[in-house]
Design a protein that fits this description.
By secondary structure, this protein is an alpha/beta fold. It has helices at 8-17, 34-46, 55-61, 82-88, 106-118, 136-141, 157-166, 204-209, 227-241, and strands at 3-6, 21-27, 49-53, 70-74, 95-101, 123-127, 151-154, 170-174, 190-196, 212-214.
């Protein structure tokens, strides 16, 4: 099934990364600028057709109307295999894999992918069922990071965590009720960071597979961050501890 990638930055990053695209669409009347010219150049270098379409046509295709006058038709997202990711990281002293336990909001998924990629993480793992998958909304929210970071889709999160443990990862679950503070948690080295679904948090079986739980200290009246914000805070604490 073809996928729509919308937004100027998302399309630029998709072209830069070599993501297979059928064509790029630019709205008629779009004023030439540096980003549009780069899109045209990258598309020409990659042999990808550039098509002029009406802005109304882009509006109809866009789930959120946030295409910024540019969109691309891509092929189905190439999910990575967990075994391949782990083989590529053999011997790597510090490695971060973020596992999402049935996160359903595609905007949150995209934001998590962006944070993990910027932090230098190695992959994001998501469930195959009852969870957001990589879509045009995710590409947009990730600002193109979904074109660079391996995203793994698995049938069973608990089994994936066991596989990560066997590969030398410590599994840390984010839980606002945890007694251990983020600042004192052992997040250096090879870490699989697990975050739960919006609202319900970690499932019981997922929590039981964690080696330890960690909480982000808060001082305000709202008790917790959303999953995307929490992923960013935790990922950059991993960066700090490995610096």
């Amino acid at each position: 099934m073809a996928d729509l990638i919308e937004g100027r930055n998302a399309v630029v990053e998709a072209l830069r990364s070599g993501l297979p695209l059928d064509r790029v669409m630019i709205a008629e009347g779009s004023k030439p600028d540096a980003v549009i010219e780069e899109i045209r150049r990258l598309a020409a270098d990659s042999g990808v057709e550039v098509e002029r379409v009406s802005r109304h046509d882009l509006d109809k295709r866009s789930p959120r109307g946030a295409h910024q006058g540019v969109a691309a038709i891509g092929r189905p997202f190439p999910y990575a295999e967990l075994g391949d990711v782990l083989r590529d990281r053999v011997g790597k002293v510090a490695s971060l894999v973020v596992v999402l336990d049935h996160v359903t909001d595609p905007g949150n998924l995209g934001a998590v992918i962006r944070s993990v990629e910027v932090a230098g993480g190695d992959a994001v793992v998501i469930p195959r069922d009852r969870a957001a998958s990589v879509s045009s909304v995710v590409h947009k929210a990730s600002a193109g990071a979904a074109s660079h970071l391996p995203v793994v889709r698995v049938g069973n999160v608990a089994q994936a965590l066991e596989t990560l443990k066997q590969a030398g990862y410590w599994v840390a679950g984010a839980d606002e009720r945890a007694e251990q503070s983020l600042w004192r948690a052992p997040l250096a080295g090879r870490i699989a960071l697990v975050l739960g679904a919006e609202g319900s948090g970690l499932a019981r079986l997922t929590r039981e597979r964690c080696d330890f739980l960690v909480a982000i200290p808060v001082s305000g009246r709202v008790s917790s961050l959303n999953v995307a914000q929490a992923a960013s805070v935790l990922a950059f604490e991993w960066v700090r501890q490995n610096s």
